[in-house]
Amino acid sequence: MLNTIIDETLEAEFALRQRHPEREEVYHGHRRRSAALRARGDCHLDLRYGAGPRCLLDVFPAGEGAPVLFFIHGGYWRALDKSDVSFIAEPFQRVGMTVVMPGYDLVPAVRVTGIVDQVRAALAWVIDRIAPEQIVVAGHSAGGQLAAMLALDQADRGTGPIVGLTGISGAFDLRPLLRTSINGDLTLSAEEAEAASPLLRLRALPPTAPLMPLLAAVGGDETHGFKQWTADLVAGWRAHGAPATLIELAGHSHFTVLDALAQDEGDIPRAIRRLAGQ
Question: Is the peptide bond before 108 cis (omega within 30 degrees of 0)?
């Protein structure tokens, strides 16, 4: 474990476990709803895309040729599971979007940079096996960082099937985490934090790199740190001439913001459907 020197201001902004003791109750509700959706049976669970023990994905299909929502769970790269967020798939599957939710190995079994490579492999599996013409990559918290890395990969390549990025309360600059208790688990070096920070990759992109539209959302009750991460990503996206929408969800915390994603006619689901051309 690194001998991390904690900055108490950054700790208050980004280490959320003490700030939100109610999160376990929120998780319980999400897991209950997720289990109920999986029990209906219109899904394919634990399909292997890679060698790691958690390199499995769940598919909630909406028919051949349907656009795909590729949704990555959060947990600061150290916790949670794809099965915790299955409930998010319901409103999208109902209106004709296939939802794919990848799992990934957690630290300390793998480095954060290794997790980035795993979700790259999961997306490659989707492109190869499902072959959708349109993919919206999305994620919550650490999943927002992972989704942004996939979107920036495509921007670097210049072409691909990703038609939109949705970052929900994403961790878009890992450098502040170096001075929090979180890095006691992540053990990130400064170099690793920089390499895995979408905001830094975005700033280094050539001006002509093609960016897909961005939808960024954050809870109104979240910390200034998470709101700033989201605002900075939106500003950077727009600076490259790409469309970016910022939605602040009043009354939602870092954990309940996922409930807004699962509303049939909420602002976030409607905006994601628009990204997919629906």
Answer: yes
**Domain 8-275 carries which CATH code?**
3.40.50.1820
Helix (H) or strand (E) holding 223: none
Nearest of 76, 129, 71 to residue 268 by alpha carbon: 71
Q: How far apart are CA 237 and CA 231, in angstroms?
A: 10
Q: CB of 10 within 8 A of CB of 171? A: no
Q: Which residues does residue 245 pair with via DSSP β-bridges, in sequence order?
A: 215
Distances (CA, A) of 17 to 69, 103, 170: 28, 22, 16
Domain boundaries, the chain: 8-275
Q: With a cut of 50, which residues of the chain have pLDDT below it?
A: 1
What angle do the packed helices 112-129 and 142-157 form, to 10 degrees?
Answer: 60
Copy the structure tokens of residue 157.
């390549």
Sheet holding 44-48, edge to edge: 44-48, 56-60, 98-102, 68-72, 135-140, 162-168, 214-219, 244-249
**Which one-letter amino acid corresponds to residue 160?**
G
For 181, the token pair is: 């208790």
CA–CA dist 126, 130 (Å, integer): 5
Return the pLDDT at 1: 44
Tokens describing residue 56: 């499995």
Residue count (the chain) = 278
Interstrand relation of 98-102 and 56-60 (parallel, antiparallel or unpaired): antiparallel
CA angle 15, 251, 10 (to 5 degrees): 20
Q: What is the pTM of this model?
A: 0.97
The answer to whether 245 and 268 have CB atoms below 8 angstroms apart is no
